[in-house]
Amino acid sequence: MNCLEYRRQLAADPRRETPEMVEHRRECSGCAAHHARALGFELQLRRSMLIAVPDGLAERILLAQATVERRDHGSQRRYLGWAMTAAVLLVVAIGVIGLSPGAAFADAMVNHMRDEPESFVPRLAMPESEVLRRFAQRGVKVAGPLPPGISYASPCPVGSYLSVHMVMPQDDGAVTVIYIAHHRENERDDFRKADVVGRSVPMGDGTLVLMAEQPTRFDALEAAWRQTLEGGTRQVADTQ
Amino acid sequence: MSSRQRQFDALVRAHTADLFRYAYWLCGDSALAQDLAQETFLRAWRSLDTLRDTNAAKAWLITILRREHARLYERKQLDTTDIGELELDDRDILGPEQIGEDAIVRAAMLKLEPKYREPLLLQVLGGFSCEEIATELGLGSAAVMTQLFRARQKLKTLLGGERTEANA
Fold first, then answer.
1. Name one GO molecular function term (chain B) (predicted).
2. CB B89 to CB A50 under 8 A?
3. Fewest beta carbons within 10 Å, which of B4, B5, B94, B105?
């Protein structure tokens, strides 16, 4: 090992020396002095990074967690009665009309949306390049321009599906758009879960899901996303 | 108290300081760093059952924190903080000269590009090896070593300038 090699390796990780580095340092007074200076710099660097932690931060975090936990348990108790009633109705519904395979898919979408409330925080539209990067991360090739006004985009796992989870603020409220990559639902479906209205549409190589309080913008957004994902070559009726 | 809750308490008490500092050096804002640390732990609570190895807890938390920071960064461009607002951990035992030196180093740290600052944080604050940093950042070990080498070089260059200005 020569001096240049020793110093390069030392600068990458001054606290860890290989046996070869130790051997070189013992034989080279210049590098021994360099080693001492490097350790001095590391000490100063570490001391500078150790900024003061605000008093009571750990306690505030534990309080926040306990509050969230209590709220969730409270909600669970409140909805227990409703859940039992719903379960009974569900059993009846299964008996009468059979369980729609789309129901589980819609449930997964709604649950995921509710599990990510930060997606609704008002913010400016994201740069198109950032949204396209999320699609690329999911291996989805986009055929046309993106619809404007996407304020949130995150590559989220939704159950066993891989998705790009987006939010598009509209005049009458935000519309959550989830594109499930590489999974086409068998058919188009309009659904309602409590106060959420939704639509899932096989599109491109996957399935586009729209969710909002009101479905007023669904047709326009579906058309815009079809242009984006399929290049506008297919008609809505194709999937119906 | 359930064993899950006890595990979470221990996790918070053991790692809050590290996470806050790591978050601070990522975003350069003390209030935001506190929010990031809190959100990281709340997410950790929800998926605590996936933590199998306590030795991996710190790396696991830092992974969650980095993801949170990335999400936050997508939402808004962060302002940098005034370095003079920071308080030292051990102000009482340091002399004015050391306090001044630390302030200069901190200012230089915040000027480092994130691609150099982040591996340096993982190494100096987190105590991670080059291989562990490479895994965390999704890079090769050689690339991490190069970034760490350049980070220190750039920091020393910046410090040369800062000290000259401070002494002028």
1. sigma factor activity
2. yes
3. B4
Give me the sign of the Cα torsion angle A195, B40, B72, A208.
negative
Cα separation, B26 vs B113, in Å, equals 10
Per the CB < 8 A criterion, the answer to whether B100 and B48 are in contact is: no
Residue A115 sits in a domain of what CATH number? 3.40.1000
Rounded to the nearest 5 degrees, what angle is found at the Cα of A122, between the Cα atoms of A119 and A127?
80
Sign of the CA dihedral with A226 first, then A230, A231, and A232 last: negative
How many angstroms separate the CA of residue A160 from the nearest CA in chain B? 16
Which of B121, B124, B154, B158 is the mutation pick for testing A, counting most A CBs within 10 A? Answer: B124
Q: From the centroid of its chain, how far is CA A168?
A: 15
Residues B46-104 pLDDT 10s? 888 888 787 888 999 999 998 888 877 665 544 444 444 444 444 444 555 665 778 88
**Same domain assignment for residues A35 and A77:** no
Least Cα separation, residue B63 to chain A (angstroms): 15
Token match 């350049």: residue? B150
Choose the CATH number for B1-82 among 2.60.120.280, 1.20.1250.20, 1.10.1740.10, 1.10.3110.10.
1.10.1740.10
A217 closest CA partner among A187, A177, A184:
A177
Cα gap B68→B61, rounded to integer Å = 10
Token digits of residue A58: 């750990």
Which of A11, A49, A54 faces B152 most closely, judged by CB atoms?
A11
**Mutant choice from A18, A53, A128, A133 vs B, greatest count of B C-beta within 10 A:** A53
List pLDDT tens digits, range A109-137: 998 888 887 788 778 888 999 899 999 98
**B112-133 confidence digits (pLDDT tens):** 998 999 999 999 988 898 999 9
- Domain limits for position A72: 53-99
Asked if A209 and A218 count as a contact pair (C-beta separation under 8 A), the reply is no
The C-alpha atoms of residue A52 and residue B95 are separated, in whole angstroms, by: 16
Q: Measured between CA atoms, how close is A70 to chain B, in angstroms?
A: 13
| Structural domain count, chain A | 3
CATH architecture of B93-168: Orthogonal Bundle (1.10)
